[in-house]
Amino acid sequence: MKPFALLATLLALTSATAASAQNASQISAVRNGASCPRCNLFQADLANLELKNKNLAGARLRQADLSAAVMNRTSFAGGDLRDLNAYGAVLTGASFARADLTNASFVGAYLQGANFSGARLSGVNFSGAEMSRAVGLTQGQLNQACGDDSTLTPRGLSMPRCR
Asked: What is the pTM for the complete model shown?
């Protein structure tokens, strides 16, 4: 490969990597209590934090860790939450409307009053989740997710068991 072509390829790869990497200053701002709509919070560690009433709508939280976080009434609407870990999180009244939650884990999460209208739930694990008063859920959405015998779903809705 010619030196100029090699340099151009390396610059293109560097730009692509930088564009998709996390934004440390935005993650720090959220960890300190700021709202941050449309922010890049890729792989953010928000575990064990209390961040209520925040606006994270449209944010990229792919592979983020919300384990045991308390984020009541926080908006994640329209966000990229693929592969999110929300083990044991308290998300009362949170909005996941139109969010992509593909392969997220809500094992043991408290989701009462959470809004899932139009959310993508393919591969989501709701084992042990309390979501009997969640809103905006359809049987079609829940057919793409899974849970276990202790998962509490809204009346009239069910989901397959996780394997």
From this structure: 0.87
